[in-house]
Amino acid sequence: MDGPSLSGRERRLLEEIESGLRQDTRLDRKLSTMGAKRRRRVRTALRRTARRIPAGVVVTALVMTAICLSVGVRTPTVAVLTALGVVWAASLAVAAAAAVLLRRRAGARRRDPLDRPEGRERRPWHKPEV
Question: How far apart are CA 79 and CA 81, in angstroms?
Fold first, then answer.
């Protein structure tokens, strides 16, 4: 503190206030964890990433990583490692493309097939009988 020190009476009042505040465990917990907001940000970022990346892509990445690492450790030559890198990247690209296609198909299934834009040809079995 830059100013004059507290008098004895002011110190006693301050200690009473602080002891009363310490008895409130909920407030004490909030004040003691005020700087711990980064965990929540990291957790939120991980959840957002998990929503964007399908589980199939993650499983494919893990399996292909294990296979490529096991082969690469046994024969660590430049040619083998290059080929493994290409195979690993291609398998992830195929898994991601398949996930995108499956999501589009799942989205198309949710829509009503009879709900078509105007001007589009309808099949005879879609026309109501008169």
Answer: 6
